[in-house]
Design goal:
By secondary structure, the chain is of the alpha/beta class. It has two domains: 45-175, 3-Layer(aba) Sandwich (Rossmann fold); 185-250, no CATH class. It is built from seven helices and eleven strands. The chain has helices spanning 9-14, 26-35, 71-78, 98-106, 121-130, 150-154, 198-204, and strands at 2-3, 20-23, 40-43, 58-62, 87-93, 133-141, 168-175, 185-190, 212-221, 230-237, 245-250. The chain has a four-stranded mixed beta sheet with strand order 4-5-7-6, with helices on one face. The protein has a four-stranded mixed beta sheet with strand order 8-9-10-11, with no helix packed on it. A hairpin with a 7-residue loop joins strand 10 (230-237) and strand 11 (245-250). The longest helix is centred in the N-terminal third of the chain and has 10 residues, at 26-35. The protein is elongated and about 85 Å long.
């Protein structure tokens, strides 16, 4: 799914098996349907996607968070379309380019833009966390957005200090893992010279979480001095559904 899809060129270029474009402009939706009819389009505001249904593998905010009046709300809106494997891809202008872009627009060397948010990667990361996502990768791209800039855009922008001056910030995020409602618990006791105490430990062990497993390890030196390896006796216990214990030798 692509938010602020415009004429649909980007999502159509990706050739998804099922692509959905969302834009609040009716004129853009009309043009997108004419140019790329294979994509499904919806005229919706990114701040209110309550009428849209489904889940998506990838959700794209390309040059979108720059223009939104409530970035966090838009991020919260797409949470319902996510599975644990869903990835959000966001790109937005580097705030260090604010002055150069303003000058270029005043000289008609760059396309006019709406008033920009000029967010930093840290700002976006914080809003992603508040919306229930976590960043897994970020980078700065496009060091020289002019002819003959291929070397700089491909190599120099990856190196310090050039990587701080790229035109566009890219962030890849995923839904934050949700905590288990009632986790299981494993208890490991390293036992040495504990003869007669193991049984009482079993008896005193309370139930913890949805399931409790118990293991005791005892190191027994090898009888041959030339072999420094040790044999370990492992005693494992699971109190559910009934008190029981098992043991086995492990070399």
């Amino acid at each position: 799914m692509k938010l602020a899809c415009g004429t649909g060129s980007l999502i159509a270029h990706l050739k998804p098996s099922h692509g959905v474009g969302v834009d609040f402009s009716p004129e853009m939706i009309v043009r997108a349907k004419q140019r790329h009819p294979e994509i499904e389009y919806h005229q919706l505001d990114a701040h209110d996607l309550s009428s849209l249904e489904g889940t998506f593998d990838v959700i794209i905010f390309s040059d979108t968070v720059n223009d939104l009046w409530d970035v966090q709300r838009a991020l919260e809106q797409v949470k319902k379309f996510c599975t644990p494997q869903t990835r959000l891809i966001l790109n937005f202008y580097n705030h260090l380019w604010q002055l150069p872009l303003n000058i270029a627009q005043s000289l008609n060397l760059a396309a006019p833009m709406l008033h920009q948010n000029w967010l930093t990667p840290e700002d976006v990361d914080n809003m992603l966390r508040l919306a229930g996502f976590e960043s897994i990768r970020s980078s700065c791209e496009v060091l020289w957005p002019l002819p003959l800039g291929a070397f700089a855009d491909r190599f120099l922008v990856k190196l310090w200090p050039f990587r701080s001056f790229g035109l566009s910030n890219f962030v890849i995020a995923r839904p934050a893992p949700q905590p288990v409602k009632e986790p299981s618990v494993s208890v490991v006791v390293a036992a040495r010279n504990e003869a007669g105490n193991i049984k009482s430990i079993f008896e005193r062990l309370p139930k913890m979480g949805s399931r409790t497993s118990w293991s005791s390890w005892k190191d027994i030196p090898a009888t041959t001095p030339t072999k420094p390896s040790k044999r370990k006796w492992r005693l494992s216990f699971n109190p559910e559904p009934a008190l029981s214990s098992t043991g086995h030798w492990q070399s």
